[in-house]
Design brief:
Layout lengths: L44 H5 L12 H6 L13 H14 L3 H14 L1 H10 L1 H8 L3 H7 L1 H4 L6 H7 L28
Length: 187
Amino acid sequence: MTNDPSPPPTTTTWPPRGGVEDVYGEDYATEDQLVTPWTYSVASGYSLLRDPHHNKRLAFTEKERDSHYLRGLLPPAVVTQQLQEKKLMNNIRKYQVPLQKYMSMMELQERNERLFYKLLIDNVEDLLPIVYTPTVGEACQKYGSIFRRSGKVLDVLKNWPERSIQVIVVTDGERILGLGDLGCQGM
C-alpha cells in the first residue's frame, strides 16, 4: 500500500480546481487501494467508530473494515450512505415534535458528521428549521433536560481535537437568539 492516494473515479481533474466538490458523498477507493484516501491518517477499530469526523458506520466497505480492524465491531451488512440517508430521513419524518427531530439530528452529528451534513445538504428545506430557527430556540430553552454530556469545560477545551482554534465564544446564555435569560436549564 502506498501513501499516495489515487484520485476517486471522476470525470474532473485531480486535485479538483475551482467550484465545490461534494465531500459529503460516498467515498471511493480504487481497486489498487485498500481504503479511501482520507482514511490513511485515521485511527482504527473502536477509536475510529468513536470519531464523528471519520466514522461512516455501516458504509465502511469490506476492505476498509479489514484494514481498520472493524470486523466484529459493526454488523456484517455494508449499507451505502445513500441508503442510510434515506432510512434516517424516514425515521426523522416519523417524529411529530420538532424537538425530537432536533435531538435525533444532534445525536447523528455526534456519531457521524459526514452523514449529518450530507443529510442536511440534501434536505435543507426540511431540516434547516429543525437545526436552526425556530427549533433551536426551544432546544436552548430546554437544554438542561436534553443535553447528553455535562460540564467539564476545561477538560473539553484541553481535549478538543482541533488545535488551530482562533476564536472561542463564551456566553452566559443571556441573549441567545434574542430569547433573553434562559436560566439554569437554558443553554
